[in-house]
TrEMBL record:
Protein known as: Uncharacterized protein
Family note: Belongs to the short-chain dehydrogenases/reductases (SDR) family.
Keyword Secreted: no
Single GO molecular function: oxidoreductase activity, acting on the CH-OH group of donors, NAD or NADP as acceptor
Domain of life: Eukaryota
Species, as recorded: Cadophora malorum
Length: 225
């Protein structure tokens, strides 16, 4: 939501969390955190474009269909490589036209990969791969969305940052590392992806109308001083 807009002071608080009539896009939306974010936005009423790269097209379409049937909103899967600026820009333009009837309200730059190499052992190719997806891909996604937002006068970008969430992406790290991290979490457990849905809905909704440029830390107390 643009900071120049604000919900009516008379609107009930729960209504401010509704995304009914909104169009959202989630990169990396078929697996792990992205899948739950896609589901959460749909449960809040948004029509959702799910972007994927490595998921089989038939599987991505089934995921979209299953969420749509459960939530009764429009969900569509789009294949896109976030490391390609022209490709992600074209896909976001297509989503805006096809799913949003010319309007795009919410973009979640969520696509990411994990690697595990000693700092001294990273090759230029390995470093480039993770930066292309996790940094450049997020920027290209937000940049393409921002061009649309500027034209229409409103919009909302949410970035997914790194964290210890209970998905198979953690398996790339040695068990002793994971055990050490786990021991530093006061909550004494890892966060499940579905627990993040509410945070994303909040950030995508009118309920967060005066939040911008902020970090919402969800880590079970890991970063407490």
């Amino acid at each position: 939501m643009s900071l120049t807009e604000h919900p009516s002071p008379d609107s009930p608080v729960l209504s401010q969390f509704s995304l009914a009539g909104k169009t959202a896009l989630v990169s990396g939306g078929t697996r792990r955190i992205g899948l739950e974010v896609s589901r959460g936005l749909a449960e809040a009423g948004a029509n959702v474009a799910i972007l994927y790269t490595n998921t089989k097209p038939s599987d991505a379409d089934k995921i979209a269909s299953d969420i749509s049937k459960a939530t009764e909103v429009a969900i569509k899967a789009y294949k896109a490589n976030v490391t390609s600026q022209p490709e992600i820009e074209a896909v976001i333009a297509t989503v805006t036209k096809e799913l949003g009837n010319g309007v795009l309200d919410i973009v979640v730059a969520n696509a990411g990969i994990a690697t595990h190499y000693a700092g001294l052992d990273y090759t230029p190719e390995q470093f480039k791969e993770i930066m292309d997806v996790n940094l450049n891909g997020a920027f290209y996604t937000a940049q393409a969305a921002a061009r649309i937002f500027e034209e229409q006068g409103h919009g909302n970008v949410i970035f997914t940052a790194s964290g210890f969430i209970a998905t198979d992406m953690l398996d790339v790290h040695p068990k002793e590392w994971r055990d050490k991290w786990f021991g530093m979490i006061p909550a004494a457990r890892l966060c499940k992806p579905a627990e993040l849905k509410g945070a994303y809905v909040f950030l995508a909704s009118d309920a967060s109308s005066y939040i911008t440029g902020a970090n919402l830390v969800i880590d079970g107390g890991y970063t407490l001083p």
